[in-house]
């Protein structure tokens, strides 16, 4: 709203250095300011007491992925970064340790179609072929520097199965102006629900 570049720099730790752009973690910035050498950090620095959101998310990911015997749950994260960007090792280590995010390079500037296809192929693989085209042509442009992709794939049996005979064609709202006819399951009953704030 006010100064987008400054906000992006603050959140993502993007800096211009010697004509190149690098994505830096707070830990790297602090370490350099203290005059320490690169590579002296341990994995525990990713999970310091001050990083409660990161720790909670890491614990949630591990718990969700270890529960399923009666269902399949895939939670995957990936960073697709413009190939000439230099990312600090500590940032990569922490994103992998805390979020399971893996870095892949892409050439958004010179090979946008191939970069988009690379992302879509990864998504298709992680969703067992259910999502084939997350990004349609034109969604990502040549100015892209980093694309963060989160995938959730869930498959399980219904506790209360739907009667296939009650499946009917209804309108599915794509947005406020568009709808598409789709096959919708139907079931009438009393079900528990709750709100999470």
TrEMBL record:
The lineage of its organism: Eukaryota, Metazoa, Chordata, Craniata, Vertebrata. Residues 19-45 are annotated as: Disordered. GO terms for cellular component: extracellular space. Residues 23-37 have a biased composition (Basic and acidic residues). One of its GO terms (molecular function) is serine-type endopeptidase inhibitor activity. InterPro entries: Serpin_dom, Serpin_fam, Serpin_sf, Serpin_sf_1, Serpin_sf_2. PANTHER family: SERINE PROTEASE INHIBITOR, SERPIN, SERPIN B11. Residues 1-197 form the Serpin domain. Belongs to the serpin family. It comes from Hypotaenidia okinawae. This is Serpin family B member 12. SMART domains: SERPIN (SM00093).
């Amino acid at each position: 709203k006010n100064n987008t570049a400054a906000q992006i720099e603050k959140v993502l730790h993007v800096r211009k250095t010697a004509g190149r752009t690098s994505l830096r973690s707070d830990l790297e910035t602090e370490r350099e300011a203290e005059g320490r050498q690169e590579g002296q950090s341990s994995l525990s620095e990713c999970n310091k007491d001050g990083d409660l959101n990161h720790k909670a998310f890491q614990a949630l990911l591990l718990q969700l992925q270890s529960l399923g015997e009666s269902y399949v749950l895939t939670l995957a994260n990936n960073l697709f970064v413009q190939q000439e960007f230099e990312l600090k090792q500590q940032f990569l280590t922490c994103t992998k340790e805390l979020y399971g995010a893996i870095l892949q390079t892409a050439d958004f500037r010179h090979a946008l179609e191939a970069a988009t296809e690379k992302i879509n192929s990864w998504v298709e693989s992680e969703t067992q072929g259910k999502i084939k085209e997350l990004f349609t042509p034109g969604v990502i442009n040549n100015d892209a520097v980093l694309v963060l992709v989160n995938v959730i794939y869930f498959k399980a049996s219904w506790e209360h199965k739907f009667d296939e005979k009650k499946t009917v064609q209804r309108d599915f709202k794509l947005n406020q102006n568009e709808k598409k006819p789709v096959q919708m399951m139907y079931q009438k009953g009393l079900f528990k629900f709750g709100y999470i704030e």
